[in-house]
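Re: Re: token formats

Sure, here are both.
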Amino acid sequence: MLIIDDSMFERNRSKKVELLAKAYDHAKHCYKFGFRMLTLGWSDGRTFLPVNSVLLVKQGKTIPAKVVYIRNKNKRNEYLCLISTDVGLSEEEIIRIYGKRWDIEVFFKVCKSHLKLSKECRSISYDAMTAHIAIVFTRYMMLSVENRESNDTRSMGELFLCFSA
């Protein structure tokens, strides 16, 4: 399954970074200096591998979307908000698809917390930041493949048979 996600790539202390803009961080509910990082990844439900990414520059264009609110049964004041750009999907389908894409949230947590995605690169060059993201994602892929080989008893041939079915 292919998964597309956007995440904040913060550059709060760098006012001279090329193409820097204020962007809304939907996870922290505030504006920050940085970029939206759009990531395409592949997952089989057990392993997530990033395929490509791009740092987006603000264009000011609106996109139609459908919003689904899910209330926490234990705490009535808390809820989760899911947004889908496929407005034709039912609320149940949006919730089902979100459950399958949880691996990308784990991916970003590992990249930001352990692989220093937004802290290691101090460059003000847009190209250098893009290269840094590629290096961090490559490190993550190497760790994912090693983890998969250590924990999955199936051979690579068996895995390819699963994907071709």
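Second one below.
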Amino acid sequence: METKLKPLLIAIKAEKKAIEYYSRAAKRVTNQQGKDALNKIKSQEERHCRELIKKFKKLAGHEPTAVEIDSVGTAISALTEEHIPDREASDLEVCQVALKDENEAQAFYSHSAEKETDEETKKIFFELAGEERQHAETIGHICRILSKS
């Protein structure tokens, strides 16, 4: 596998895990504002994933296969792979996990952008870092609301 494709595969894998997490989390959270925010972020993560797959296809000449995605053992955040039992975690705990994950995703994308030599890929990573920062701000706001209830 080309070295320049690995960060894209890592990002695709992480975005897929985030989509799964936000889908579960939105169903689990009882606070309507939190549920709406998590569903909105899930939709944005789906868009991120489509953009990353499109970029991968442009560079590799094909869409990433499940084998290629699974071959990258490094996740942006271990939390995207952490299972929080739906009945055991509070709304606040669900949001705190998401907040930590978004902060780690932002750091990954920023670092990847700084190392990237392809200007188009660099731009994608910087945009994703900015969006993950916005996600973290939104989730941080929801965490503050939930900590007061």
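The radius of gyration is 15 Å. The domain at 3-148 is CATH 1.20.1260.10 (Ferritin).
- S.
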